[in-house]
Amino acid sequence: MEIQEEYCYQIAKEFTVAEERFIPGEKIVTCRADDERVVFYKKSKDSEINELPEKELSTYLDMTSGVEDFGTCENCGCELSSIPKAGWGVGYVCGPCAQELRGEMEY
Q1: Is residue 48 within 8 Å of residue 28, measured between CB atoms?
Q2: Where are the beta strands (DSSP E) in 1-105?
Q3: Span 3-36, pLDDT tens digits
Q4: CA torsion sign, 72 to 74 to 78 to 81?
Q5: Is the pTM for the entire model greater than 0.90?
Q6: How many of the other CB atoms lie within 10 Å of CB of 95?
Q7: How far is CA 73 from its chain centroid?
C-alpha cells in the first residue's frame, strides 16, 4: 500500500527522526510523497517537518488508518471531515461551530 499525500496516518510502531520521537497512537500528516521519500509532520502544533524513505516510514504506520486530512476546527479542535465553507465567514471551523458563532443555533 502506498503512502498518500495530504493524508493523516496513525503510528503503529515507535520510531525517532532527528531527535523527534513518534509513539503508537499519535498521528502524522504527509505533506509530499514521491516515489522514494515522504515529507511529514506530527499532528501537533509544535512538530518539526521530517522526511524518510517511503519504504521505511510505511513500516511504522498503520496503513489502514489513512484518511484525507482537512485539519482541525479553530474553535473546538475537532478533526474536520471536509474543507469548511468560506461563506460562513467565521474562520476555519466545523459546521456546528460555524452555526454557533453566527448565532444560528436551534433553541
Answers
A1: no
A2: 7-11, 15-17, 20-22, 27-33, 37-42, 49-53, 61-68
A3: 888 888 999 999 999 889 999 999 999 988 777 8
A4: negative
A5: no
A6: 14
A7: 12
